[in-house]
Design brief:
The protein has helices at 25-37, 59-73, 115-125, 142-147, 160-166, 194-206, 217-227, 255-262, 284-290, 320-338, 342-355, 360-372, 376-389, 394-406, 410-423, 428-445, 462-479, 483-513, 519-544, 546-549, 551-568, 570-582, 587-622, and strands at 4-10, 49-53, 79-90, 97-99, 113-114, 130-140, 172-178, 188-189, 192-193, 215-216, 235-239, 245-247. It is of the alpha/beta class and 623 residues long. Strands 1, 2, 3, 4, 5, 6, 7 and 11 form an eight-stranded mixed beta sheet that branches. Strands 8-9 form a two-stranded antiparallel sheet. A two-stranded antiparallel ribbon has the order 10-12. Helix 19 packs parallel to helix 23 (587-622). The chain starts with a strand and ends with a helix.
């Protein structure tokens, strides 16, 4: 069996403000990468999976990795998996689709990754047996909107020539999703994007072959097309000559068998008969773990585990009268549960357990109710009691797994759900819970990883990797809006205000006290001071907001107070008269100084308001 090589890219923040910041892209790439290398997930070799996030994902770095994986590392028996989450756009001059990388500028399409040119060269020359490229992109720019046939059309990105050429390359697939446009809100579930969430569910078993347990890419693509809404539903392009196995051992088989097991070719249809369907739709999978109301219900025990969850009281010493009374109370609890009267239902169950403390069904129903209320520890006590009485109760093991998952104990939860499946291998609800736990494990691993940190593995250049990580850390620190950033903005504004006022006072002092000095020098110094104050007000408030604005009104008041004192008070007029009497030639300089203070009092304040409003509108447009 050949190797499986992966390159996963996610970019949230861009240097160019034309690409709005994303929320899920880096988390999506990291969660999928961690699942692929997890021993309970894809079980890929960690050294064969590379993860590039944020500032690491520059055009130069991406091109190096693509060339190395496709042309140097891949062999004739290997499978390549490429995943990109971020922005994509069209070159308005040539209508060619580009992926937006961390250092891409919208007005400079050459700084992006040309999709058709790059992929055609690499896909056509690579010796790899199969290459799967998954693009989870936000479309950016009005030009894309003009060329699309529907609001969520992704065909303009690869373009007609690339799609036609792709049909001539066997086992080269492009799974392309279009998340609306740059103004469409991101949609996520369990802290990852919708496509990544469904992709993980499919890899965890939703798209597994029912006979071999393999995850075949063609079946995974059909699973995604069936389980996603219009905005995230991907389109599949390419032609396959056999199944592309992403998870599981590959089998040696003839071409006819391979094509039959692969299901459909590129595109397929939504009614694929071999694709397993989950009751209640794809949304119920994570609800089974996240909400206890979706746990396996003891009141609706599947036929396959009826012998493990008896509906009759289990106490051997209970009297017939106690049994009859317990049965009535249990029936009452079920009715109250259907009416969503949880507290009353729990009271009835407590009465049942007072009569028959080991009643299995009452204990399981109590565990379900407590779990629904978020009282997981108490619910666990009821389930543990059932397991002490009946260690072979598959339903109790399944409920224990769901409770442990809600408590964040994923390894224990996985062992519990596997125990349940060993007792009842064909229970669909338990298989759904197992898939949900695996997805939650993959997502839970992602916040702890540093942004932009690759998985263990070789890199084209250790120096470039370290530089990328340092750049990512710098970008993350720069984008933070915590107290330290606000404090720096406030101090910078104060420093610039003091510098601007100082220059103005210096220019006025030269003109008044040294009338023989060149007049242009004092005017230039005063002009520089005013320009510094205005620039700080406009640009500072635009980028840093209210924290750069706060000192400006104080300086305006100070600049107003000094001329007012000189002109409106008796002592101020006396001082002016003394200055003019001592130096009649300085009268013009005094007039310019008073005019300068008047401009300082009004102009920077007005520009600061303009900067604040413009910055707010910019942020609102990005959101």
């Amino acid at each position: 069996m050949g190797r499986r090589l992966g390159l996963l890219i996610g970019i949230n923040q861009y240097q160019d403000s034309s690409f709005r910041p994303l929320r899920y892209a880096e988390t999506d790439a990291r969660a999928i990468a961690h699942w692929l290398v997890n021993s309970r997930g894809g079980h890929w070799n960690p050294s064969d999976v590379q993860l590039l996030l944020g500032a690491q994902a520059t055009r130069q770095c991406i091109e190096q990795w693509l060339a190395q994986l496709c042309l140097q590392a891949a062999g004739p028996d290997d499978t390549l998996f490429l995943y990109f989450a971020g922005h994509a756009f069209l070159d308005e001059g040539r209508a060619e689709g580009h992926l937006a990388l961390a250092d891409t500028f919208y007005q400079q399409p050459a700084s992006g990754l040309p999709l058709a040119t790059t992929l055609l060269q690499l896909l056509g020359r690579s010796p790899a047996r199969a290459i799967v490229c998954v693009l989870d992109c936000f479309q950016t720019g009005r030009f894309w909107g003009q060329r699309r046939a529907s609001p969520f059309d992704c065909k303009p990105l690869p373009g007609p020539m690339f799609l036609a050429a792709l049909q001539q390359l066997p086992n080269r697939f492009l799974l392309c999703s279009c998340r609306g446009n740059e103004f469409a809100p991101e949609q996520g579930e369990q802290n990852v994007g919708m496509l990544a969430h469904r992709l993980l569910l499919g890899l965890c078993g939703g798209a597994a072959d029912p006979t071999s347990g393999q995850i075949i890419f063609q079946r995974l693509a059909l699973y995604l097309q069936q389980s996603l809404g219009e905005q995230q539903r991907p389109q599949l392009f390419g032609q396959g000559l056999g199944p592309v196995v992403l998870v599981g051992e590959e089998e040696t088989e003839g071409p006819a068998t391979a094509v039959a097991r692969a299901g459909a070719g590129a595109g397929g249809d939504n009614g694929h008969p071999g694709l397993p369907q989950r009751p209640g739709g794809p949304g119920t999978v994570l609800q089974a773990v996240h909400q206890m109301g979706q746990m396996p219900q003891p009141t609706q025990t599947p036929a396959g585990i009826a012998q493990l969850s008896p509906l009759q009281p289990s106490s051997a010493i209970a009297t017939p009268r106690a049994e009859q009374q317990a049965a009535l109370l249990l029936q009452q609890a079920r009715a109250l549960l259907q009416q969503q009267q949880l507290a009353e239902a729990l009271t009835s169950l407590e009465q049942v357990l007072q009569l028959m403390p080991t009643h299995t069904e009452a204990l399981l129903l109590k565990g379900q109710l407590l779990g629904t209320a978020g009282r997981f520890a108490e619910a666990m006590q009821a389930v543990e009691q059932v397991l002490r009485q009946e260690p072979g109760n598959a339903l109790a093991w399944s409920m224990r797994a769901a409770l442990l998952a809600n408590l964040g104990q994923f390894e224990e939860a996985l062992r519990a759900v596997e125990r349940s499946l060993s007792l009842d291998p064909h229970n669909a609800e338990t298989q759904t819970i197992r898939s949900a736990i695996l997805v939650k494990m993959a997502v839970a691993q992602t916040p702890a990883a540093p942004t932009g940190a690759p998985l263990p593995g070789a890199s084209p250049s250790a120096a470039s990797s370290s530089a990328g990580a340092a750049a990512t850390a710098g970008a993350s620190a720069e984008s933070g809006r915590g107290p330290r950033r606000r404090g720096r903005a406030l101090l910078m504004s104060l420093a610039l205000q003091v510098a601007g006022l100082g220059l103005g006072l210096l220019g006025a002092w030269l003109a008044i006290k040294h009338p023989g000095a060149p007049g242009a020098l004092s005017l230039t110094i005063e002009g520089l001071g005013l320009a510094l104050l205005c620039a700080n007000a406009l640009s500072g408030c635009y980028f840093d907001g209210i924290w750069r604005f706060l000192p400006i009104p104080l300086v305006s008041l100070l600049a107003t107070a000094l001329p007012a004192y000189l002109l409106l008070t008796q002592s101020g007029r006396t001082r002016l008269a003394a200055l003019v009497e001592a130096n009649p030639r300085g009268f013009t300089a005094i007039q310019f100084a008073l005019l300068w203070f008047g401009l300082v009092a009004i102009l920077p304040f007005l520009l600061a308001l303009v900067g604040l409003l413009s910055g707010w509108l910019r942020g609102a447009r990005r959101r």
